Amino acid sequence: MGLSMVPVIELRGSIFLGAGLGLPWVETFVAAVIGNMIPVPFIILLGRQILKLLKKIPLTMKLGVWLEEKALAKSDKIRKYSFWGLVLFVGIPLPGTGAWTGALIACLLRLRLNYALPAIFIGVLAAGFIVSGVAYGFLGFLSFLA
């Protein structure tokens, strides 16, 4: 669960780790989803203030600018497709996507928490199923669902 809260690694890395350690997929999936969602409301609510603070401190200024530019560069699809754009952005497990980036984009686009949180949650669930299918093998994964 803790590994899922770490940016970049998030749910994708923690599910592969769970599979590699031989942990049952259901427990791994649930822990990864919960862990990935814990930072999301805080990012949505406090992200702008944190970026503003990062950009004021000389040591972290470049990081703050880079994070903001990276998130805004990926926001076009979310602006265009709204709720489902955010779901797809978070749910398709590609590099640079995920709950952290989705939450930061939602924050920068000033999306309300009650709008962004369900979209990110659905995306995290979708990514979790996709990554679990890959990590645990689709046949074993699908036989458990049947």
Summarize this entry quickly.
InterPro entries: Sm_multidrug_ex (IPR009577). The protein is mainly alpha-helical and 146 residues long. The protein has 8 helices and no strands.
What is the global morphology? globular
Overall tally of domains:
1
How many angstroms does the end-to-end distance come to? 26 Å
Radius of gyration: 16 Å
> Helix amount, in percent?
over 70%
Work out the helix count.
Answer: 8
Largest sheet: none
Number of strands: 0
Poorly predicted ranges: none
Percentage of β-strand residues: under 5%
What's the mean pLDDT score?
90
Order of helices and strands: HHHHHHHH
What multimeric state do the chains show?
A: single chain
Instruction: Give me the secondary-structure category.
Output: mainly alpha
Keywords: Membrane, Transmembrane, Transmembrane helix
Organism: Feifania hominis
Transmembrane segments: 29-47, 83-111, 117-145
InterPro entries: Sm_multidrug_ex
Write a structural description.
The protein is mostly helical and 146 residues long. The protein has one domain (3-145). Helices cover 77% and strands 0% of the residues. α1 packs antiparallel against α2 (25-37), α2 packs antiparallel against α7 and α3 (40-56) crosses α7 (113-136). The radius of gyration is 16 Å and the shape is globular. The chain starts with 9 loop residues before the first helix and ends with a helix. The mean pLDDT is 90.
